[in-house]
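Our preliminary data section would be incomplete without showing what the modeling component actually yields. Below, a chain of 367 amino acids is followed by its predicted structure, encoded as tokens that our downstream tools consume directly.
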Amino acid sequence: MTHPPASRNYSEQQAGSLRAGDHLILPDGNRSAEIHRVDVETDDFGTPAMVLATLSGGGVLRIAAGSLVRVTDDAEPGTPASDGGGPGTPTPSAADAPEPTAAGAPELPASGPSSEPDEAAPDATGSAKTEPAKTGPDNTAAAAVVVPPQPVAPPAVSGPSEADLALIPAPDGTPESVVEAAAEAHPGAVGVVLLSERLAKGINTKSGSCLKDLSDLAHELFVTLKDPDNALAVADLLNVLPFDGNPDRWASVEASLALSSYICRQSGQDQRAGIYEKLLRAPEAMETDPFKARINAKVRQRSLNEPNLYDKEIFRAIDNANPDAERDWRLLRLEALLFLRAHGGSETIGTAELERRIGNELESVRA
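Predicted structure:
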């Protein structure tokens, strides 16, 4: 990296301590830019991992939080820090944000004329593309800027339309009457009776415990009592609820949607199953920031490729001759497998293998 001229005063500090108004020396070492805003991305453990420095002249620098960067007190004339660039000097924009280097900071092209031909950067089609050279007031050619291609953001998951939602039948009566009808069909089932008695007092879709009881009731009806019709009727009380940003409440809706998708696939209602799967994936399209959307997609794919199927817990229960604990862990494994099936499988477990495993778990917990 080129060091700034000796006449300029600068100091080093950690990227995590950058603030709006700081004049950051850019990676080329010759220019500085004023920071307009600083955002910090954390890793999965909550530790600051990436600093996103939005520059006043446009563009975003991505810097590893622990990296040392240089800041200066005197902004260089004609740089993005003062007026966004002099004649013939292109100003980075948010769309032209450069790619990060291995050190965590993006590489910016050095300013000034160049006698060497510029390297061609591939465009979206894979062909070479070079920015045309610009001329300044004195008709001297300024250096052409090669803009690296930006990573393509993952496609947004389209939610179901009104016509799609029409395939989900409306409840026959009030939510409480749907639960009551399911309980009357199985008067001797203790699990159904207990859940229905709690829900008969009133179903509040804002209550996380109420949503959990509805999801548990739908699973009890299908898994234990082999009653897909009543299970689907109860699950549909949850399936039409939108994602409200609360992951705890959404977990119950998510489990209900996955169960409903499987029931419909088994009964040949593939179109209706597809609606439940769209609803299940709808929160994935809510992130509008392309960078965050890419990170979320990677984390989500990793969780699908490496699901927790509770193998250790199940084997421990078997070794301890504890069938009740084994069944409870297998029910959790079944929910995880149904969730994977509703996503169409993953890169490590295909749909055919998931169907086989779900069948095995159903047979085990029903025994």
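The chain is about 40% helix and 10% strand. Residues 1-6, 77-158 have pLDDT under 50 and may be disordered. Preliminary results of this kind motivate Aim 1 of the renewal.
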